Structure formats: C-alpha cells, structure tokens
Amino acid sequence: MNVKIVKASDVKADFALVGVYEEDDKRVAPGLKTFGLEANDHAVFQLGHEASSFAFGKMHSFPADGRGLLMIGLGKRDALTQEKMGTLLKSAVAHVKGMGFKSLATTLAADSNMDAEDAVRGLTSGAVIGELAFTHYKSEQPEDKIGEFTVQIVVDGKQATKLRKVSKDAAIMGAAVNEARLLANTPGNIATPAFLADAAKASGKANGFKVTVKGRSQLRKEKFGALCGVAQGSANEEKLIIMDYNPAGAKKTLAVVGKGVTFDSGGISIKPGAGMWDMKYDKCGACNTIALMGALKDLGVKHRVIGVVGAVENMPSGDAQRPGDIVTARDGTTIEVLNTDAEGRLVLADAISYTRDKFDPSWIVDMATLTGACDFAVGSTYVGAMSKNDELVQSFIAASRKVGDKAWQLPQGEEFDEANKGTYADLQNISLTNKAGTAIGGSFVSHFAKDTPFVHLDIASKAWTPGVDYFAKGPTGAGTRIVLQRILDE
Ligand code: BES
Ligand code: ZN
Ligand code: ZN
C-alpha cells in the first residue's frame, strides 16, 4: 500500500472518493468541487433524485474510465472517529480494487469536520492495517491482479508538509502493527520461544538494534526462578530476549517488556478445551515489543529504548510446576504458585526486575495478555492501563487517544497489593477474591519494578478480534501504537 499526501492540483487516480454526511445535500458535497465535479454532473444529479442514504459506510459508485466516483456515507455529524475514518477507507479500497483499479484519491480528510491530523492518521492506518489479512497458511493463495495500490489523501496545500509527516509516522506505526499481527498469528507449533528470539535477531539486523538471548541453562544459573518455573513443563526451552536500540547521543533510557507465552495451556491448572486455541495469542505483548523495536529508527527516536521479552511455553507434563509450589524470583521475592494458569505475572516478574536492575530506565511499560477479566473490565475495544504513577499512566492514555488505539485506566493501590500477599511466601500468584482480577494482576507485576516508574498495559481484552473497524479477524497488535506514540512524546 502506497499512501501519499497531495494537493488538489496533484491528484492523479482512477477513482475519486468523496464523503457525505447523512444530514447533508450530496449534490453540494465539498469534495465534488475538488475533483471538478459540478452539482449537475450526471452521476451526482442522478443520485440527487434517488432516495439514497449516506448512513455510515454506505457506498454509491459511479465507475468511469480514469474518472470513477465513489461517494461514501460519513454517517451522523460529530460521530466520526479516527477508527471510523480508517474503516471507510478500507471499504473503499476493497471496492475500487474489486473493480480492477489501482488507485484512489480522497477528500475524506477535508469532507469531515474532524481535526485534519486525526483524519490523516485514521486514513493512513486504515490503508496500511486494513490491507493485511491472514491468508498465508492457505495452500490456495488469493490471486492479486492489482499489485501495489495507491491512496492519495487530498489536503490543503498549506498543511501538506505537516500532514505528510503525520501520514508517514502513521504508516510506519501501521507497518509495525502488521508485523506484530503476523508474528502473533503464527501458531504455537511454529512460534516457539526460539522462533521469537530468531525474529528479534532478524529485525535487529535489519533495523539497527542489538539483540542478546539467554536460554534455559543461563536463566536457571542466573536464578530467574519465577520465569523458569513456568517453562519447566515444556520441551521448548524458555528464552529471555533483550533488544537494545541505542542511537548516538541518546540521553534517556526507556524500557518495554512483553509477555511472550507462546502457548498457554494453563499448565497443570489446565484450561478447558473450547477456545484454548486462542492461547497462541498469549504472546501478543512480546510480538508487539519485537515489532515496535523495528520501527524506532524509521520514526527517528532519539532515546535509548530497551525491549525485553520473556518467552516461555506453559505446558502440563511430569516436569511441570504444581499448584502450591513456591518459587523464588530473581529479585529474591518468594511466590506461591496457587494456579499454574496465572503464569504471565511470573514471567513478567523476572523480566521486569531484570530490566530495572540492568538498565535503570526512566520508566518501564509492559504489554501483556495477562487476565481474562480485562475483557469484562474494559470491553474488547479498550486496553486496560494502570500504574501507581497517575501522571505517567495518563500520558500513555493521551498517546492512545492520539493514535486511535483506545486505552482506559483501571485502579491501583494498597487494596490490590494486599490481595497478592501469600500465606506461606511473600506473594501468591492469584488472589482468593473474584474481584478486580485485572487490577490485582497489575499490582502483582508492579511489585517487581520497585521504585522505577511503571505502567502496565493489559492487552488481553483487545489483542485479537473477530473483525472490528479496519482489522481483519485475528490479532490486532493493540498497544503497539500506544507505546510507540508515548516514546515519541517523551
Ligand atoms: N493468558 C491468560 C489470560 C487470558 C485469558 C487472556 C483469556 C486472554 C483471554 C492468563 O495467563 C490467565 O490464564 N490468567 C488467568 C488468571 C487467573 C487464574 C487469576 C485468568 O485470567 O483466568
Ligand atoms: Zn494462563
Ligand atoms: Zn497467559
């Protein structure tokens, strides 16, 4: 997908895409003028005499060689969002492609009363993210007669330079999201911890960051007791993947930690069979982390950014850990493993304390599919965000608004710390209440950041979708853009 910001005078495309609000008169839609279509143009005239609806996403197509017109409903005034903008563009591209054309130019950014930067970000995201579908494991590949498709976004000439940068950054972030989605969709038999380590190494080589990997024997020697306990039942050895983007002149260090459970069977506290296949997505935090490291150079990030992934497989076996086992995390905290299915926090415990001790970053953020309860707390269109540092978590939520990847704050505090206290050890890995599971999970992992400012993003709610906005069914990369934008905001 090729996305370009152009002035009206530079438009050259097979199709013109114009948006119309439900309440407005389509014959005087401002976008029509841009494309030199008058109110009495044949197609538009015809439309004016039909009882045609411009409900959100409704399309009216007037193909013509070299000058097709596609009018699309923007729905109700003031109800448009970045995500909806992207959705409109995705449908329009599918329509124009389906008719065998290779490009469209759109006035959508100007047709709405949305902020121009938001509109451009939404359109670019819809074009880039909307393009990816998960068909590569099918033996019969869909035929691609079109090749690379071009989207021209028409903007006011005075704003072109600024909006070109907005679109470029959104395209880089969108590509990172797609990379995270492709990694995440790779099933557990292929995407083992070693596979994730190789993916990180390949990206490091291509995108200028250093990658080191610690394996089972080293992690055991270095007393990563919580992380290794989770992995001990699996034949696929655990890996700690350490990625270091360190541009010349960097003054600050920021850190991102990802939960990389390549498959979460639950272990001895085994999960029910129905839906267990979705637990290949329990590595989404790791996939996001690996993918976002690859975007830092292209985005021109000036800070040192550390990405750490704890990659393990949670399996039941004769070697697996048992409910009731007590493990010692690398920072010395003892933990009762009351439920082997609450494994993510055990992996993160050691990954976070390592990150803190080794790199002393200004802040740490983690992304993890940590709790099934997150879906109940914030629903499937939000990421759950939490921290003991209110200002820091708010800055992540502001970043999330900006990029159109929604997050909502959940509470943290001593009530939740209390729920994690163990009977026979310092902590236990589940609480014995059935309340606030996501906040309690967040409190558990924050223990290992000690006094380092720390934000926990529980992405379990939004990490994969049956299909929403411009996302195809499958993993979404949710959280990737939030963290990238927050890094840019630093
Ligand atoms: N990977 C799961 C969380 C999860 C469940 C994410 C469903 C997405 C959808 C995690 O390891 C887990 O199993 N958590 C338990 C914690 C509980 C035992 C305290 C959960 O959420 O049930
Ligand atoms: Zn689990
Ligand atoms: Zn898990």
N-end to C-end Cα span: 30 Å
- Biggest pleated-sheet summary: 8 strands, mixed
Strand content: 15-25%
How many separate helices?
Answer: 17
Query: What global shape is seen?
Result: elongated
The level of helicity is 25-40%
Structural class: alpha/beta
What does the model show?
Helices cover 36% and strands 20% of the residues. The protein has helices spanning 30-34, 42-48, 82-98, 108-111, 116-129, 160-185, 193-207, 216-221, 225-231, 284-293, 296-299, 344-359, 373-378, 390-403, 414-419, 437-446, 480-489, and strands at 2-6, 15-21, 59-62, 68-75, 103-106, 150-154, 210-214, 239-245, 253-264, 304-314, 325-328, 334-337, 363-368, 383-386, 407-409, 427-428, 454-458, 464-465, 474-475. Helix 6 packs across helix 10 (284-293), helix 9 runs antiparallel to helix 12 (344-359) and helix 10 packs across helix 17. The longest helix has 26 residues, at 160-185. The relative contact order is 0.11. The mean pLDDT is 95. Residues 261, 264, 282, 343-344 line the site of one zinc ion (ZN).
Please summarize what this structure is.
The protein is an alpha/beta fold and 490 residues long. It has 17 helices and 19 strands.
Entry keywords:
alpha/beta; binds zinc ion; binds ligand BES; six-stranded mixed beta sheet; eight-stranded mixed beta sheet; 17 helices
Write the layout of secondary structure elements.
Layout: E1 2-6, E2 15-21, H1 30-34, H2 42-48, E3 59-62, E4 68-75, H3 82-98, E5 103-106, H4 108-111, H5 116-129, E6 150-154, H6 160-185, H7 193-207, E7 210-214, H8 216-221, H9 225-231, E8 239-245, E9 253-264, H10 284-293, H11 296-299, E10 304-314, E11 325-328, E12 334-337, H12 344-359, E13 363-368, H13 373-378, E14 383-386, H14 390-403, E15 407-409, H15 414-419, E16 427-428, H16 437-446, E17 454-458, E18 464-465, E19 474-475, H17 480-489
The structure holds ligand BES and zinc ion (2 copies).
